[in-house]
Amino acid sequence: MGNKYRKPTTLHGDAGSRCSLSVVVWCLVGCVVMLHFYSLLFDRNEVGGGIQVRLNSRLSLTRELEKIEEESFFIPPPRGKRSPRAVKRKPKPKRPTTIIEEFLDENSQFRHLFFPDRSTAIDPMKMTENDDLYFYPGRMWLDTNGDPIQAHGGGILYVERLKTYYWYGENKDGPTYHAHKRAAARVDVIGVNCYSSKDLWTWKNEGIVLAGEQANLTHDLYKLNVLERPKVIYNDKTGKYVMWMHIDDANYTKASVGIAISETPTGPFEYLYSKQPHGFDSRDMTIFKDDNGMAYLIYSSEDNSELHIGPLTADYLGVTHEMRRIMVGQHREAPALFKYQGTYYMITSGCSGWAPNEALAHAAESIMGPWETMGNPCIGGNRIFRHTTFFAQSTFVLPLQGIPGSFIFMADRWNPAELRDSRYVWLPLTIGGAADKPLEYNFRFPLWSRVSIYWHRKWRLPDGLWIDQR
Ligand SMILES: *[C@@H]1O[C@H](CO)[C@@H](O)[C@H](O)[C@H]1NC(C)=O
Ligand SMILES: *[C@@H]1O[C@H](CO)[C@@H](O)[C@H](O)[C@H]1NC(C)=O
Question: Where are its TM segments located (predicted)?
Fold first, then answer.
């Protein structure tokens, strides 16, 4: 940016060199004042008007998204923090004291706000004109058979040839239990479900495309193990659909990735093997296929303290030796990667089990890094919503065919009391405008475009997006 403020050389002309020193000084002062004003403006945006400013950024491309309702849902404020000493002296409070505790408490009087009941379900078979094609984040979502969609921790593959979206995710339609006293809530491995859709709203159940194993105790997919975050990409060279997933034992000590392949998007997938990529523990993960056909694995490692990223082999059935550690010491999981105009972006969550936490957006010029953290991408709703990723955790970011720079952010609102009743939070994500956390060395001038995820109680995709598809 320095060049922009360099004193024009014509000033040297008549005034001569005696004058030039004071001109330089005044120019420097001017620069500092401008920087200061910029900072002030910037800070004010962050506190108050930021949402409005950013809303204008890229939404002109998707006018339909501008018209949707803003957050109107009210959550009572937390009932105040207790100091650790107060907690020691007094008996444990019976009522939850924070919104997160309220969210996790299956007897909370506010539970219907987080998990609205079936009467409000999105049902494509019983749609009224008012609700046709509207997304309602957090509501129950039914497939074309009228059953709640079971595709948790999922991802979507668009198959151009078939003009169809395929949504893969965990089938958690079994009882929730704790394997032992200290274990997290779990559901036995049932398998990976697949749903197909032309419009991203009406989903047909294509069944279990990779089934859990009922009897064989040594099999990776044995029901008492863990299968999470399945993602599918298509290999143009081998003509195979390749699924990667997190494979673990009930205590999360196996920490591996599993790989399965299929001839068709709807399976059945053949399970091949699991491995620890690059010899490291691997838990939450995703895969990303770049424009040039290169694919990458991104996984939480070193006990979730950092992420690792590395290219897959040409057949997508393994990793190469190349690997970079990124976001070291930042303790991030649930990575969702996407690309726009040559820049790579990632959304991650913190590590707090089934409890929601704050999302962060990251950006990089090269997929192998360095990656920079840009701050919380969540916008709108209220403060608590923004600080809990709308009570959800990232799982995937889907580019919208036909609207460059617009994406759908897909997240899971986990329900640890009844995991099968976990909800989907899908929201519009756009790239554009100023980053809200200035990076080091940039004098508060953002180097990256802002990634924004807008809260909407109700929203729909632009009309006409599906004209040639429905
Ligand atoms: C059980 O699974 C293991 C590992 O996949 C396999 O090697 C073994 O053949 C299986 N046993 C049976 C009886 O299918
Ligand atoms: C998991 O940990 C519990 C408690 O430490 C132990 O009893 C159990 O055998 C472990 N299970 C596996 C599959 O390692």
Answer: 21-41
